Model the fold of this input.
Amino acid sequence: MALPVPPYAEEPDPVRTSTRGAAARGARRPGLRIAVPALLLAGLLAFPGVLPNRPGHLGSLAETALPWFGALVPVLLGWAAMRRSVVGVAAALVPGVVWACVFLPGYLPGGDGARADFHVLTFNVGGDRTAPAEVARQVIGTGADVVALEKVPASAMPAYERALGAVYPHHVTANTLGLWSRYPVRGTASLNLGGAWPHAVRALVATPGGDTAVYAVRLPSVRVRADAGFTVDARDRSAAELAGRVREDRAARVVVLGDLNGSLRDRGLAPLARQLAAAQREAGRGPGFTWPAAFPLVRIDHVLLRGLTATGSTVLADHLGSDHRPVLTGLRGADGT
Done:
């Protein structure tokens, strides 16, 4: 009698098992591949200061462009969606949340709604790009009481003085800088912050908010060059020198107006940002970008304060040809008087 043959048990195919394992690992890898850059991006947004500044001042460059790194979040989300990776989507949302925490507060209404004691305006006129009469017409139309103009051609300075003199009888100029005021000024001085020309003028202005030291400033220009990176050395030295002058200024109220050629997030401007309040952060709305005028990408024109409170700060449209946009800011005494 023949014994029944047991059913044949097929041994697992090692090739097929290996293929299934690789497929499973491959399904998990997109999440990991998305998570790594997402978390690195979140870290950069939250702690840009940890990025080394060498070579080429890359840290300063990244800090200047920091708000725009948020544009990578939709890219990561799209990548995760294409790969149908839940892990990838979750990871891509992390830098989005960090970006929102860092930048969204700037889009909330700013200022306390109080009436301003006086208004200040800063405007880099762009050299020969603009005409004095047209700039004067726009400046007067803003209702500003104290005006700082930067990059005024030396040959055009007399024309600016004539065009603005009727409304702003008090003024001080030095090289390409001018400070005009409705109120009396004294203690005027041009400040050599290093470089080929005076980068600031200072005057004590008798504003309704009290005697106020007003600085009109244009720090050295910066460029991005393939052979040198972000060329901020001269600007950083001048910023540090200006910060020292402001620190030693005995005036209870200080306003720094002008083209600082950098974002306040840039570590090179930290000596100023640490001791002065930014009017845009106090009372502006949105990023307040000012350059280039046609499609602003970064805020390099600033109003910085000590002993005063900003009631509102607005970036104005410019159709005169400058590559900068003007900034108008309302100010009152810090104690509300």
About this structure: Residues 15-19 have pLDDT under 50 and may be disordered. Residues 19-106 form one domain.
